[in-house]
Amino acid sequence: MTDQTATAPPAASAQGGTEVAGRVADVLLLFAGGPEHLGVSAISRELGISKAVVYRILQSLVSREVLETGAAGYRLGPAAVALGVSALRGFNVRDAAAPALRRLRDETAETTTLSGLVGDERVYLDQFESPREVKMTVEVGRRFPLHAGSSGRVILAFLPADRRESLLTRPLSALTDRTVTDAAALRARLTETVRDGVAVSFGERQVDAGSVAAPLFGPDGEVHGSISVCGPRHRFTPEAVDRYGTLVRDAAEEITRTWTTRR
């Protein structure tokens, strides 16, 4: 009798600890796939847990710099970014993509990039910088919305229709004055992207930048990322864009084959 009574509290404690850990994970996943800033009320509604519990979780994460807080609400902090970059280093598509991206960089003399689909956004996973003095570089590990720029738009174009439409019903923020924020206009661009197999952007994510991107597909046949050639907009002439489109499509197909074989 005594032994049974002694073992009961640890079991209950373990169950409670698992529940708390699950709630913390759920909160973090909201930040990974949702808006940049979230508040206590929004998280409480989304997860169906009390504001008091949400607040305690958020404060614990803030104290460890996994989250940080400001006037707009809570957002991912430096510790979360560090964890994300560490995880990206082990993302095996980087190894599969490296040879093709390096060769693509050499063929175009422009920066080449690899992006992955993370939640409802994309993240730069790797880049091979242009050898030119004037060039474009990207911030590895930074998140961007799918509707802005060629790397995101080519992922958005090849998502399953229901998921794509769900994203298009949300507010589309403008990163530059060239970002397409009208859903109907964006749908037309996505149709062109599917037809051509590539997306082209002129200043839609970053002012005065040009880029051409192609999708990467996983063994499940779904889009999981993209690659791009990017550089100063004035170098992306119609002739260059046509040439880069062919090179990027070929490189993406090669990476997809290599990646799906290694997985």
Folded structure, characterized:
Helices cover 52% and strands 19% of the residues. It has helices at 2-33, 40-47, 51-63, 78-89, 93-108, 150-157, 161-168, 183-196, 238-262; strands at 67-70, 73-76, 111-118, 121-128, 143-145, 199-202, 209-217, 223-232. It is built from 9 helices and 8 strands. Helix 2 packs across helix 3 (51-63). Strand 3 (111-118) and strand 4 form a beta hairpin. It has 263 residues and is of the alpha+beta class. The protein folds into 2 domains: 2-82, Winged helix-like DNA-binding domain superfamily/Winged helix DNA-binding domain (Arc Repressor Mutant, subunit A); 92-262, GAF domain (Beta-Lactamase), CATH 3.30.450.40. The strands form 2 sheets. A 6-stranded antiparallel sheet has the order 5-4-3-8-7-6, sandwiched between helices. A two-stranded antiparallel sheet has the order 1-2. The longest helix is centred in the first third of the chain and has 32 residues, at 2-33. The termini are far apart.
